[in-house]
User: Which sequence fits this backbone?
């Protein structure tokens, strides 16, 4: 509930600030040696489109470098309330399972059934489909105090039945290398023109936010979400150098599902006030059929998804354009084999443009290859 | 009546006949080795016709080894009593009187038969100090101590013990002294909360000693003729300033009273302890007592012997304070200059108190000075307090008023962050106490208390909470040994949250409790043998669990009002303190308490045999306003007994049960300001606590050192715990989120206490455990699968040290050190990726502990000179809180930052905090 989180803020502020003496330090918990290896199920039964995704993984020991270990080779199916198999998922990669072409009615109840490769059977409780209203708008504002861009979402449900909302934000942005390397080194003394399909000058980067954005209108007379704060992007990245886009996915949840996400948020995002709610083992609506004592993590909801994408051009936010993260200068590489090998093969320079007398102007990789900063050169369909 | 005449007859007969038949045989032959005085007496009486009259108490320490042949008895006795305080005198009728300190005149004065002017009639009060001035107090004191005071009517015919009663007061302001100890030989009685006492003395010469915290011991020589009244005024200890001298002197009191687990702190002692922001703090002082813990430094309330915070009844002169803290627990809500002292009952809770199962913290208010106007105050870096007192009617009536406030806003203003610059924090509290003597039999008191906290965060959310309390008390003395105290009062606690930043969702949230109560309490004593206490408590509670309303015309917030709760609590009680013999004393009490939850209310019913969940609701029943919904009824037993092994050693045992009908709902670790209270209803049963305890007490009188050990075991029933993710606020079906639990708590407390001297203080060690278990057969939400788990405040080991050293009357230092095991926490044991970020999977509840807690504080008190004729007396306190600067973790939490889990520990006080306070008195 909103008021509660405000109080939390308030309290944190008191403890943290009035009494300037309070302090926060890193804490390393006592080492846990047992690997609990609990099955984690994440995803939605999408009753809107015909595509649903699920991700299966296993918990890892605290302190291990990766947080999730994909669970491969499982079979997932959606059952009707009567228990008949409606559709079967196929494994895509890395513990990701997908189903296409499942025409699921919104008003029905469904159950998820998982059989893992070690032949253990897991099931969810029955979940009833819920319809998500459309997003009215996604807006943004520069927040000078916090030095970043704050995104907001607005929606409403005239039938007053959605009440519990969850938003996911997916960011995409285009950025460029410092120089457009139009040539490529082919070994020996050969330099060729780069095909446009091989360009490494324009890149797109894609991330999903790790934060949980939820809110409820259960205490309001109208089911209206007004300027709900969702994603906040701090200044200091290359997101706004060219063009930036965010896709907001909205899902209406049941009260129970909302409670699950709220607790997940509480225990992993809102800690640190004096009045923290005691953390508890958060289990969802899944259980292990084979072994009743085995915990399963995850909450399955059946819902439709509403989405909206907006773009921010670099001209809209000139102050957010960052200087290029590397010092870039061109040097001229003379066309002899040793020089070319040294620069292009050993030092990984890329030829940018022809210079005089057969030489090429070249620059290091961090100035010419945008992929070095984590993006891909594949232009997304919506760009 | 027959017995009444017996001594008279004896006297008459002895006078008439003894002389006539006297043999005048006054030599004895004795051969005794390590004999008692009794054996000597028996031997002498066999050989002679002398009869001994003596007090066994005076002579039981004598050991006599003598070998004489035909010696004169007078010589023998002289020999025996040579090195003792004992005297003997022989009357003409062959009676030998053994007396202590004074020699009796065997020729009785005429006053013995004919009353003279100095002899006061029965029932008439003697106030033994006349109007005295400050300057000659000392001389006067000495004079009065040597004066023989005659009590009662010499013509009265009495047998056996005679009852003397009266009131002990502070001579300076006429304030009654509570808990003063009156000792006469082996008998000791304690004054009640009105300073009244009643003691049985033998007829004739008696010496009584009166001791009280912070007071100079008063000694009175009495000649008791028959029952009568004696009021005693005591002088304050040497220094004139309050809050200077720490005298925790309760001579032998720990050993003598049958009560167990009672701790007292006087305001003087309290003021000397180092404190966090330079202000004497009642609750923090309580936390230094054995058996009292808290979950952390910024938490309201305290845990007594494994009980939760809401199981403590906090009384401010009979008014229930629901939230005893300011600023979410950083300051206790009591103005130190108005508080007289605090008393904490951990196990032997007197039968007159009820309604909470863990403890009673009785904060008593000072009575205003009945003789002259005065005041006191203190100025600290964050808060200041002021007190003003004086007579409303000379000697008869007085008032005391205290005010305290904070000015912490200046800190906020100086912070760089704009968000905080616009924030505000305020609190104040106001205490008032009026007392009026109407006549010798009737007294009237009025107590008022008000505290308010208000915070505003960055122009948005305003948060406030308030305590309002008022009561009127009337004391009536029916008879010398029988009086009643009648109280009527009103308690209110409320909080509210207001948000206005987003017009569409602006809201106000309100919660309040109103409690109307009447109490009638009667005390009647039958000599020293029985002291009977009985009475009635009636309590009507009206509770508004939450109203959520739109704030402003644009707001779309739906008005939500959780239905009001009301209930009536009735209790009748009867108790008797019995001094069965000089060695054995018992306090037995019974309290019958009943609670009825009343409508108007809609009560949901759930499918039988199913867990209470929203989906299992099958019906609802509507109860009309005032219609009883459910009644709970049960006895509460309060039993304690003391057996004295000898003068300085005793063992005690106790058993008590308590019932509680109002519960605080909280699933946060610390008591949070949004916690609501809930009355028992069809589903929430009363909490029941049972405790057995056993203790051993010893005093070393010479050094004024007390050692004690108490062991206890406690059972808790219907303790409230919550399902994961329980919503406690604005929940119409709270019973679906609550898990009834049972608990057990046990422990042992050791304490070594030095009450007086240049060096005084205490050190205590406590081992204690508190375990809970879900007791709800139908749920599958059992905490830790229904196994026992440690409660949030389970801290097995704790050591407290409080030491004061007085260099002079004007300078003393204090050191406090506190160590305890870290409290239990639930830690993550696995990590997983969910919702785009790393998440953690938690262990079973409370399976780990935060690092151990240690803190040392130091303070120094410096007084101005003690010239009595001074405009204002002042003192400075300097000190350092958390001397070692240790970062004691308050909590540990895990948060997902950019999708990665990081663990943090939060310390409330991360460094040493110096403080300085200026206190004054005028």
Assistant:
């Amino acid at each position: 509930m909103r008021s509660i989180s405000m109080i939390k803020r308030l309290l944190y502020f008191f403890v943290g600030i009035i009494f300037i003496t309070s302090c926060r330090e890193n804490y390393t918990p006592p080492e846990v040696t047992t690997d609990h290896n609990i099955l984690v199920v994440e995803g939605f039964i999408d009753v809107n489109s015909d595509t649903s995704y699920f991700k299966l993984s296993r918990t890892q020991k605290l302190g291990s470098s990766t947080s999730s270990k994909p669970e491969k080779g499982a079979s997932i199916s959606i059952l009707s309330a009567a228990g008949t198999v409606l559709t079967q998922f196929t494994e895509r990669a890395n513990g990701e399972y997908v189903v296409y072409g499942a025409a699921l009615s919104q008003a029905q109840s469904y159950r998820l059934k998982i059989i893992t490769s070690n032949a253990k059977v897991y099931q969810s409780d029955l979940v009833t489909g819920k319809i998500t209203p459309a997003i009215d708008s996604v807006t943004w504002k520069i927040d000078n105090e916090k030095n970043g861009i704050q995104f907001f979402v607005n929606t409403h449900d005239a039938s007053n039945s959605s009440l519990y909302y969850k938003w996911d934000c997916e960011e995409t942005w285009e950025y460029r290398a410092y120089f457009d390397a139009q040539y490529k080194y082919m070994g020996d003394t050969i330099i060729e023109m780069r095909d446009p399909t091989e360009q490494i000058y324009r890149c797109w980067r894609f991330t999903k936010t790790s934060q949980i954005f939820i809110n409820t209108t259960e205490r309001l007379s109208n089911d209206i979400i007004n300027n709900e704060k969702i994603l906040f992007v701090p200044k200091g990245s290359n997101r706004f150098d060219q063009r930036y886009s965010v896709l907001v996915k909205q899902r209406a949840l049941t009260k129970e599902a909302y409670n699950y996400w709220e607790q997940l948020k509480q225990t992993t995002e809102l800690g640190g006030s004096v009045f923290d709610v005691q953390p508890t083992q958060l289990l969802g609506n899944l259980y292990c059929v084979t072994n009743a004592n085995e915990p399963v993590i995850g909450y399955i909801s059946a819902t439709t998804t509403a989405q909206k994408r907006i773009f921010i051009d670099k001209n809209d936010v000139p102050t957010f354009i960052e200087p290029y993260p590397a010092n870039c200068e061109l040097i001229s590489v003379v066309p002899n084999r040793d020089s070319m090998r040294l620069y292009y093969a050993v030092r990984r320079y890329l030829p940018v443009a022809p210079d005089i007398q057969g030489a090429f102007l070249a620059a290091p990789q961090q100035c010419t290859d945008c992929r070095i900063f984590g993006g891909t050169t594949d232009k997304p369909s919506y760009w | 009546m027959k017995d009444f005449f017996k001594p008279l007859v004896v006297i008459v007969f002895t006078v008439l006949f003894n002389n006539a038949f006297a043999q005048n045989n006054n030599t004895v032959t004795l051969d005794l080795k390590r004999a008692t005085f009794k054996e000597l007496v028996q031997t002498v009486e066999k050989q002679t016709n002398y009869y001994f009259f003596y007090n066994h108490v005076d002579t039981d320490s004598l050991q006599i080894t003598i070998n004489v042949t035909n010696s004169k008895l007078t010589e023998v006795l002289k020999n025996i009593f040579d090195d003792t305080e004992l005297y003997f005198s022989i009357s003409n009728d062959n009676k030998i009187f053994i007396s202590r300190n004074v020699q009796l005149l065997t020729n009785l004065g005429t006053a013995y038969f004919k009353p003279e002017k100095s002899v006061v009639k029965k029932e008439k009060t003697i106030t033994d100090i006349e109007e005295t001035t400050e300057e000659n107090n000392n001389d006067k004191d000495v004079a009065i101590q040597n004066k023989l005071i005659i009590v009662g009517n010499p013509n009265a015919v009495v047998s056996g013990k005679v009852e003397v009663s009266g009131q002990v007061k502070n001579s300076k302001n006429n304030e009654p002294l509570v808990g003063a100890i009156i000792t006469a030989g082996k008998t000791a009685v304690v004054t009640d909360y009105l300073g009244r006492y009643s003691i049985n003395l033998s007829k004739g010469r008696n010496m009584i000693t009166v001791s009280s915290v912070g007071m100079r011991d008063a000694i009175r020589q009495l000649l008791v003729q028959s029952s009568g009244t004696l009021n005693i005024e005591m002088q304050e200890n040497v220094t004139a300033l309050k809050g200077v001298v720490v005298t925790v002197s309760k001579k032998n009191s720990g050993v003598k009273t049958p009560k167990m687990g009672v701790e007292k702190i006087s305001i003087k002692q309290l003021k000397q302890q180092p404190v966090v922001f330079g202000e004497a703090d009642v609750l923090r002082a309580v936390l230094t007592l054995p058996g009292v813990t808290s979950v952390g430094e910024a938490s309201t309330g305290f845990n007594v012997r494994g009980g939760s915070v809401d199981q403590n009844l906090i009384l401010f002169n009979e008014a229930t304070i629901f939230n005893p803290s300011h600023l979410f627990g950083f300051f206790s809500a009591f103005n130190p200059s108005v508080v007289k002292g605090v008393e904490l009952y951990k196990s032997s809770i007197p039968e007159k108190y009820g309604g909470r199962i863990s403890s009673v913290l009785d904060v008593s208010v000072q009575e205003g000075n009945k003789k002259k106007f005065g005041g006191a105050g203190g100025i600290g870096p964050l808060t200041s307090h002021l007190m003003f007192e004086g007579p409303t009617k000379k000697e008869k009536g007085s008032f005391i008023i205290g005010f305290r406030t904070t000015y912490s806003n200046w800190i906020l203003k100086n912070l760089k962050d704009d968000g905080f610059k616009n924030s505000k924090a305020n609190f104040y509290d106001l205490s008032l106490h009026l007392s009026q003597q109407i006549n010798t039999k009737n007294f009237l008191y009025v107590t008022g208390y008000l505290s308010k906290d208000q915070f505003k965060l960055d122009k948005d959310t305003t948060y406030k909470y308030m305590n309002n309390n008022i009561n009127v008390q009337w004391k009536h003395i029916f008879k010398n040994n029988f009086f009643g105290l009648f109280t009527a009062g009103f308690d209110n606690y409320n909080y509210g949250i207001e948000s206005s930043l987003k017009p569409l969702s602006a809201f106000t949230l309100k919660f309040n409790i109103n409690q109307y109560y009447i109490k009638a309490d009667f005390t009647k004593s039958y000599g020293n043998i029985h002291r009977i206490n009985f009475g009635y408590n009636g309590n009507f509670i009206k509770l508004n669990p939450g109203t959520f309303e739109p704030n402003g015309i644009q707001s779309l917030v739906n008005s939500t009002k959780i239905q009001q709760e009301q209930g009536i609590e009735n209790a009748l009680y009867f108790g008797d303190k019995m001094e069965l013999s000089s060695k054995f004393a018992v306090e037995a009490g019974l309290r019958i308490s009943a609670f009825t939850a009343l409508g108007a209310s809609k009560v949901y019913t759930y499918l039988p045999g199913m867990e209470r969940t929203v989906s299992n609701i099958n019906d609802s029943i509507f109860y009309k306003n005032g219609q009883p919904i459910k009644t709970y009824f049960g006895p509460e037993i309060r039993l304690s007994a003391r057996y004295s092994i000898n003068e300085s050693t005793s063992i005690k045992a106790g058993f008590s049960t308590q019932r509680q009908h109002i519960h605080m709902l909280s699933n946060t670790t610390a008591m949070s300001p949004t916690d609501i209270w809930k009355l028992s209803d069809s589903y929430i049963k009363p909490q029941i606590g049972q405790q057995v305890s056993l203790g051993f007490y010893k005093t070393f009188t010479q050094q004024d050192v007390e050692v004690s050990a108490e062991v206890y075991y406690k059972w808790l029933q219907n303790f409230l715990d919550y399902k994961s993710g329980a919503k406690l606020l604005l929940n119409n079906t709270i019973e679906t989120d609550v898990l009834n639990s049972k608990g057990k708590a046990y422990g042992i407390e050791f304490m070594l206490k030095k009450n007086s001297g240049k060096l005084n203080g205490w050190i205590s060690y406590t081992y204690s455990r508190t375990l809970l278990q879900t007791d709800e057969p139908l749920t599958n939400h059992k905490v830790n699968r229904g196994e026992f788990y440690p409660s949030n405040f389970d801290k097995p080991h704790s050591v407290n040290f409080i030491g004061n050293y007085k260099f002079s009357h004007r300078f003393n230092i204090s050191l406090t050190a506190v160590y305890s095991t870290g409290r239990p926490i639930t830690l993550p044991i696995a990590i997983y990726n969910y919702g785009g970020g790393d998440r953690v999977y938690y262990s079973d509840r409370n399976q780990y502990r935060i690092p151990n807690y240690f803190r040392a504080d130091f303070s120094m008190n410096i007084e101005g000179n003690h010239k009595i004729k001074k405009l204002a007396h002042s003192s400075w306190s300097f000190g350092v809180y958390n001397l070692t600067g240790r970062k004691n973790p308050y909590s540990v939490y895990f948060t997902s930052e950019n999708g990665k889990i990081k663990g943090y520990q939060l310390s409330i006080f991360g460094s040493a905090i110096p403080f300085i306070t200026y206190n004054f008195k005028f």
Q: What stands out?
A: Confidence is low (pLDDT under 50) at residues 1-24, 108-139, 238-252 of chain B. The domain at 2-107 of chain B is CATH 3.55.50.30 (Phage tail protein beta-alpha-beta fold). Chain B touches chain A through 91 residues (CB under 8 Å).
